[in-house]
Write a structure and sequence with these properties.
The chain is of the alpha/beta class. The protein folds into 2 domains: 5-29 and 296-404, Aspartate Aminotransferase, domain 1 (Alpha-Beta Complex); 41-293, Aspartate Aminotransferase, domain 2 (3-Layer(aba) Sandwich). 39% of the residues lie in helices and 17% in strands. It has helices spanning 5-9, 37-50, 60-79, 94-108, 127-136, 153-159, 182-191, 211-214, 239-242, 279-293, 297-315, 343-352, 365-371, 387-404, and strands at residues 18-19, 22-23, 25-26, 88-91, 114-118, 139-143, 164-170, 195-199, 218-222, 233-237, 255-258, 263-265, 321-324, 333-338, 355-356, 358-360, 376-380. The chain has a 7-stranded mixed β-sheet with strand order 4-10-9-8-7-5-6, sandwiched between helices. The chain has a 4-stranded antiparallel β-sheet with strand order 13-14-17-16, with helices on one face. It has a two-stranded antiparallel ribbon with strand order 1-2. Helix 7 links the parallel strand 7 (164-170) and strand 8 (195-199). The chain is globular and about 70 Å long. The mean pLDDT is 97. The structure holds 4'-deoxy-4'-aminopyridoxal-5'-phosphate (PMP). 4'-deoxy-4'-aminopyridoxal-5'-phosphate binds next to helix 4.
């Protein structure tokens, strides 16, 4: 099966926009994806017909809001094959999900124990663990990658030992596009009894995330990279681990019993969700997950690979273009340098052609330093992008090359 990309595009109102009289070519999907009409409608409908706080009102709207909100939890749990709805904790996104785990780990980690990450981490999956180690006297170990952006799995394995308390790595690298062998890495970490967190920010939108099959303990992701609104995401955690995980946010909704001097915590998922949640965001995420699930997964992946293959192929014809990240298994992300041009200048010229890409350090400063570059330009593809848009990217790059020569 192939994707009906034309029909898909028609569901995204923003893709009809023109920038400076030129059709928008949106190639910044690793930063955030656009939202289909069904997601926009779900949010508007919630505020138009149901708006009320959840879990607390003794009235019709509050019951209805709670039902819709909790239905989204069921939908997300099914989407990632969680072993129960209570394993899905709502957060503001990947960053907050990782912080929830890292703040807890900071309390559990003993001096001398170790956390292992990789050289390709986004700051969200690096700085968090640095801080957890700092407060607890733990040590952060960093597994190296090869020049092509692939993880050195042997070197990763060599870092694991009986002091390893937690291992964290990205499912897909936002900067390099590398798809990591997450089942294999998880199995290796489990062999030394370490906890495993997968940063799924980029992995979630590529379909087929099955948290039970991965075997990890935590999978963190953001809704906004999956056609849902910003400000909502989830932490999936194994129930037996989450049940005993130290709470990090305290306040309303997460408690069982409160006195002036003390409090006890409620059951999952509430014990890790304090305060009024992003109700419309949750409902939007539920709508996005249900919409995405209707697509043919194999067709989604084949389309993304076709876009990436065309992008890689055309790169060799551009004078001075260097792709950063050429691992054999990649998702639809292409970071690159154009000669000695600063990525910001490349981005500016592309923007004038209606082509939206990301430029900068990709929230991965140590990784950029490793490659000896200030940052990259990055084109990233989603299901609604077309091969013609990849060609437009290259038309714009040829123009940039001429202007910057
Ligand atoms: N990890 C990776 C690999 C990412 O790409 C991102 C988003 N760029 C994050 C973590 C953080 O996600 P968010 O900003 O949505 O919390």
């Amino acid at each position: 099966m192939t994707l009906d990309v034309k029909a898909l595009r028609a569901q995204f109102p923003i893709l009809q926009r023109e920038i400076d009289g030129k059709p928008l070519v949106y190639l910044d999907n690793a930063a955030t994806t656009q939202k289909p009409q069904v997601v926009l409608d779900a949010i508007i409908d919630f505020y138009t017909t149901t708006n009320a706080n959840v879990h607390r009102g003794a009235h019709f709207l509050s019951d209805e809001a709670t039902r819709r909100y909790e239905k989204a939890r069921d939908d997300v749990a099914a989407f990632i094959n969680a072993n129960g709805r209570e394993e899905v904790i709502w957060t503001a996104g990947t960053t907050e999900s990782i912080n929830l785990v890292a703040r807890g780990l900071g309390q559990l980690l003993k001096a001398g124990e170790e956390v292992v990450v990789t050289e390709m981490e986004h700051h969200a999956n690096l700085v968090t663990w640095q801080q957890a180690c700092k407060v607890s006297g733990g040590t952060l170990k960093v597994a190296p990658i090869f020049e092509n952006g692939e993880l050195d799995v042997d070197a990763f394995s060599a870092l694991l030992n009986d002091k390893t308390r937690l291992v964290a790595f990205p499912h897909v690298s936002n900067a390099l596009g590398t798809v990591n062998p997450i089942k294999e890495l998880t199995a290796k970490a489990k062999a030394v009894n370490a906890l495993v967190l997968v940063d799924g920010a980029q992995g979630i939108a590529h379909g087929g995330v099955d948290v039970q099959a991965i075997g990890c303990d935590f999978y963190a992701f953001s809704g906004h990279k999956l056609f849902a609104p910003t400000g909502i995401g989830a932490l999936w955690g194994r129930k037996s681990v989450l049940e005993n995980w130290p709470v990090w946010l305290t306040g309303g909704e997460m408690i069982a019993d409160v006195t002036y001097q003390d409090a006890t915590w409620g059951q999952l998922p509430n014990r890790l969700e304090a305060g009024t949640p992003n109700i419309a965001g949750v409902i939007g995420l539920g709508a996005a997950v249900n919409w995405f699930s209707e697509l043919d997964l194999a067709a989604v992946q084949a389309h993304e690979q076709a876009l990436l293959a065309s992008a890689h192929e055309q790169a060799s014809a551009i004078d001075g273009m260097r792709v950063i990240g050429t691992a054999p298994k990649k998702a639809g992300v292409m970071s690159f340098m154009l000669g000695n041009a600063h990525p910001a200048d490349v981005g500016f010229i592309l923007d004038r052609q209606g082509v939206a890409i990301r430029t900068g350090d990709n929230c991965a400063q140590p990784l950029m330093k490793k490659f000896g570059i200030p940052g990259t330009a990055r084109a990233s593809f989603s299901i609604y992008n077309t091969l013609e848009e990849v060609d437009k990217l290259y038309d714009a790059l040829r123009k940039a090359n001429m202007m910057l020569a």
